[in-house]
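hi! just following up on the protien thing from before. the input was this:
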Amino acid sequence: MISHLNIKFITAALFAGCFFIYGCENDIRQVRDLGVKTTNVEEAVNIQSIMSQDGKLRAKLYSPLMLRYPTDTVKIEFPKSLRVEFFDSSNKIESRLFAKYGRYLENSSKVFLRDSVLVFNVHGDTLKTNELYWDQASQMFYTDKQVKVIRPDITINAIGFRANQDLKNMTFFKAFNSTALMADSTVP
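and the predicted 3d structure came back as:
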């Protein structure tokens, strides 16, 4: 026969068991979120960065906002515009760059620029495009998109372009609306 003490013990055990079972229930969304990898984003405002190579000043970058994603391939974004001043070997500005958006991949040393990209040099040349790459290692600009180059003596419209960062030597792949140049031509 079950004693009165045993009934109280069994009732207490059942009550405690129900409490623990109810307390161990997990929200399925919370469990799923545990397996999701989150990426930390480092944020900086009012950036002024100096880039040097072999101990020589090469460029200064200015941006109101920088986002750095420390993943396997570190990516840095400038979502609210950027401005860069490029310097020659005697630390004089040789060209300036403006864009509304920029992305830099540290492993490849390449910068992708888009949206109202402008490059000016000290000789009065202006490059306008909506998409441009800058290879930091070779100090070259290039794109396969439409470009417009305005020089003091001529305006050149083209699809595809390659030039060094001071815009002295430019190669156009498909020039049009320019009587002075033929397709696949180089401008010194």
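The chain is about 15% helix and 55% strand.
The helical segments are 4-23, 28-34.
cheers
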